[in-house]
Specification:
Elements: E1 2-5, H1 10-18, H2 25-29, H3 34-40, H4 80-85, H5 91-99, H6 101-104, H7 118-129, E2 142-145, H8 148-154, H9 177-184, H10 191-194, H11 200-214, H12 223-234
Helix pairs in contact: 3-7, 5-7
């Protein structure tokens, strides 16, 4: 299993010298795991794009956010509180905001509750930092492969269920629950999903209807297929996981 690790070299140090807002990245993100950060971003993609020139959604596009001036994404309507927050998105400020958004910026429009684990916040910030005209890992990103025997022992055996961390409400905890939960609860309660029972084709049509009639953004691949696999397996017509009243 290859883990993407952020390593900062000469080019990165030059970047810090030219951009003071990024000067604290080296110490905080030296060992961050961007692969884990990518997974954590699934909690964000329903409201944010991250690609260059990506459109604003419920939240602003996040390309280049690390070190960027606060409330400066063109075309996005920021809350007065965020405009007043001002300054730049240093790692320290991003960390505080991701921990408790509504405590750090009282009056923010972002409904996200926050990430309690420091490791999660660091990994997410590191991942965000790779999307920039001057990526955080410029000229020095490396992939470290664990020895083959360690990799083999780290992989779950066939039939084993990997531990899935998180609170997914009434949804069945199984592969794909995280992607499904974060995509769906951006707009509504997970109970709406848990109470349904559809074939895979039915769920596919439901997603298309949400896009065409309800204004939901298309779910990108491979997430769309992962969500359909999860729903077709655990919320099919036989309703094996229909929630019973407490």
């Amino acid at each position: 299993m290859k883990l993407a690790r952020v390593r900062l070299g000469v080019v990165g140090l030059a970047l810090f010298a030219a951009t003071p807002a990024l000067a604290d990245v080296q110490a905080g993100l030296a060992d961050a795991d961007t692969a884990k950060g990518e997974k954590l971003f699934k909690r964000c993609f329903a409201c944010h794009t991250i690609d260059k020139d990506g459109k604003n959604k419920v939240g602003p596009n996040l390309y280049g956010v690390v070190g960027k001036s606060v409330a400066q994404v063109e075309g996005y309507s920021y809350s007065p509180a965020m405009k007043a927050y001002g300054g730049e998105w240093t790692v320290e400020r991003l960390d505080a905001y991701l921990l408790q958004p509504r405590a750090e910026v009282k009056g923010t429009k972002m409904a996200f509750a926050g990430l309690k684990k420091e490791e999660d916040r660091v990994n997410l910030i590191a991942y965000l930092g790779t999307f920039s005209d001057t990526p955080v890992q410029s000229g020095a990103a490396v992939e470290e492969a664990a020895p083959a025997e360690q990799t083999a022992s780290a992989e779950p055996a066939k039939g084993d269920v990997q531990e899935i961390e998180g609170d997914f409400g009434r949804l069945k905890v199984a592969p794909g629950v995280d992607t499904t939960f974060y995509a769906c609860t951006a707009c509504h309660s997970e109970m709406i999903v848990a109470q349904q029972g559809l074939t895979r084709e039915g769920w596919d049509e439901m997603l298309e209807w949400m896009v065409d009639e309800q204004g939901m953004d298309d779910i990108p691949e491979p997430d769309r297929t992962e969500i359909l696999d999860y729903l077709a397996t655990h919320y099919n017509e036989d309703r094996p996981n229909f929630p019973n009243p407490n």
